[in-house]
Design a protein that fits this description.
- This protein is an alpha/beta fold.
- It has 10 helices and 7 strands.
- Helix 5 packs parallel to helix 10.
C-alpha cells in the first residue's frame, strides 16, 4: 500500500520561533531596538496605506542603506543562526517523522511565512523542511537587495496550501497552480496547519474547512489571546507552543497521524472490496 502523505504546515514567527525572526539578529545589527523598527514599519503602513509586508521589507532596505550595511542573502542567512525556538522544536521533526514511519505515514514539513525566506534558510532547523515559502528579495549585480521578489501576506498564504496540495513547489509556476488536477499529491484532509494568530486565520480556516486540522499555538500564559479562534470555529485545536515529547501538541499530532493511517487503510480495503465485487 502506498504511504499517504501528511503535510505539517507551519507559520514561523511566534509559532516555531519565540518571536519575529528579525528581532534576534537583524534589528540589533542595525543598532536599533525592535520596537523602533516595527514602529517605523507601522508608520509607513498608516501614512502610505501600503501592504504591511511590503512596508517591513522596504524599511529593511532603507535602514541597511542608512547604516551602511550590505543587505545580502549571505547576511540574512547569518541572521538566522541565532533564532530562539519554543521548547522541543529542535527535536520535534525527528520524533514526528519517526511516529509517521511507525504508522506507515510519510510526514512532510513546510513553512508558509510572512517573514524572510533567507533568514529561515539560515536557521538551524531549515533542513527539516520540504519547502520554505516566505518573502524574498531581488538582488542587484553586487548581491545587495533592492526590491521585493516575493511578498507573502496573510491572505496570500492560502495559495501556498494549494501549491502543497498539487505538489507545485516552484514559486514561478502561476499556470499549473490554477489548472484542474485529478490526482493531488497531498490531500487537504491530510494537512495540519500550525499558526499563532490573526495573520494565520485564512490559512487555518482553509485547511479546517477542507477536512484537515488547524492548530493555534500560544506562548506560556497567553492562552486567552487565541481562545477566540476556537470559539469562532476557525481552528480545530488550541494548545501551548510546546513541541517537547509527550506535550499536548505532540499528542494531538500523533493522533492525527494514527487517524491518517486508519483512514488510508480503510480506503484501501474499500477499493479491494469494490474490485472483488466487480468480478
Amino acid at each position: 500500500m502506498k504511504k499517504p502523505i501528511l503535510a505539517l504546515i507551519y507559520d514561523f514567527d511566534n509559532t516555531l520561533a519565540s518571536t519575529d525572526m528579525q528581532n534576534f539578529s537583524f534589528i540589533p545589527s542595525l543598532g536599533m531596538k525592535k520596537n523602533d523598527f516595527w514602529n517605523k514599519t507601522n508608520e509607513l503602513f498608516k501614512e502610505e496605506n501600503m501592504d504591511k509586508v511590503l512596508c517591513y521589507l522596504l524599511v529593511m532596505i532603507q535602514e541597511c542603506k542608512k547604516k551602511g550595511i550590505k543587505l545580502t542573502k549571505e547576511f540574512l542567512k547569518e541572521c538566522g543562526k541565532n533564532i530562539d525556538y519554543f521548547k522541543g522544536v529542535k527535536t520535534w521533526f525527528d520524533r514526528v517523522n519517526e511516529y509517521g514511519e511507525k504508522h506507515n505515514v510519510k510526514v512532510e514539513h513546510y513553512v508558509i511565512s510572512c517573514g524572510n525566506k533567507e533568514i529561515v534558510e539560515g536557521c538551524s532547523i531549515a533542513q527539516n523542511f520540504t519547502k520554505i515559502f516566505a518573502c524574498e528579495f531581488l538582488y542587484d549585480e553586487n548581491g545587495e537587495a533592492f526590491w521585493p521578489k516575493v511578498a507573502i501576506n496573510y491572505t496570500g498564504k492560502t495559495q501556498y496550501i494549494y501549491r502543497i496540495k498539487k505538489g507545485i513547489t516552484d514559486d514561478n509556476d502561476d499556470t499549473e497552480i490554477n489548472e484542474k488536477m485529478e490526482d493531488k499529491r497531498v490531500r487537504m484532509d491530510n494537512m495540519i496547519y500550525i499558526g499563532d494568530g490573526l495573520t494565520d486565520v485564512p490559512a487555518m480556516l482553509t485547511v479546517k474547512e477542507s477536512g484537515g486540522n488547524s492548530i493555534a499555538v500560544y506562548p506560556e500564559g497567553k492562552r486567552e489571546k487565541i481562545t477566540k479562534y476556537y470559539e469562532e470555529g476557525r481552528v480545530n485545536y488550541i494548545c501551548k507552543a510546546d513541541y517537547s515529547k509527550n506535550s499536548e501538541l505532540e499528542k494531538i499530532v500523533n493522533l492525527i497521524i494514527e487517524q491518517t493511517h486508519i483512514k488510508s487503510s480503510l480506503e484501501e480495503k474499500q477499493k479491494r472490496f469494490e474490485h472483488d465485487n466487480k468480478e
